[in-house]
Amino acid sequence: MSTVADLPLQDISHEVLIEKYAKDGERSADELRRRVARALAEAEKPAERTRWAAAFQEALERGFVPAGRIMSAAGTDLSATLINCFVQPVGDSIATAEDGVPGIYTALTEAAETMRRGGGVGYDFSRIRPAGAWVAATRSHASGPVSYMRVFDRSCETVESAGSRRGAQMGVLRIDHPDIEAFIHAKDEGDLRNFNISVGVTDAFMQAVVDDTAVDLVHRATPSPGQIEAGAYQRGDGQWVYRRVQARNLWDQIMRSTYDHAEPGVLFLDRINADNNLHYCETISATNPCAEQPLPPYGCCCLGSIDLTRFVREPFSPAPQFDEAGFAEVVAVATRMLDNVLDVTPWPLPAQAREAANKRRVGLGFTGLGDALVMLNLRYDSPEARAMASRISEVMRDAAYSASSDLAKERGSFPLFNADLYLSGGSFASRLPQSLKDKIRAQGLRNSHLLSIAPTGTISLAFADNASNGIEPAFSWSYTRKKRLGQAEGGGFKEYAVEDHAWRLYRHLFGADAPLSSAFVTALELSAADHAAMVAAVAPFIDTSISKTVNVPADYPYEDFQDLYTQAWRSKLKGLATYRPNSVLGSVLSVTPEVKQPEPLRPLLDGANQRLKVERLPQTVVASLRWPSRPDMPGGNPAWSYMIRHPHGDFALFVGELPLDGPEAGLFGRNLPFEVWINGAEQPRGLAALAKTLSMDLRTNDAAWLRLKLDALATVQEERAFEMPMPPSGDTRLFPGVVAATAAVIRWRCEQLGALQEGGPTPVVDAMFSRAEPRTGISGTLAWAVDVDNPATNEQFTLTLKEVVLPTPGLEGSGGSVTRPCAMGFSGNYPKALDGMARLLSLDMRVLDPAWIGMKLRKLLNVGEPLGHFMAPVPSLSGERRQQVWPSTVAYVARLIIHRYAMLGILDEAGMPLADMGLLQSPAAPKLVPEGGALQVQAGKPCPECGNATMIHKDGCDFCTACGYVGQCG
Question: Which pLDDT does position 818 carry in this prediction?
Answer without folding.
Answer: 83
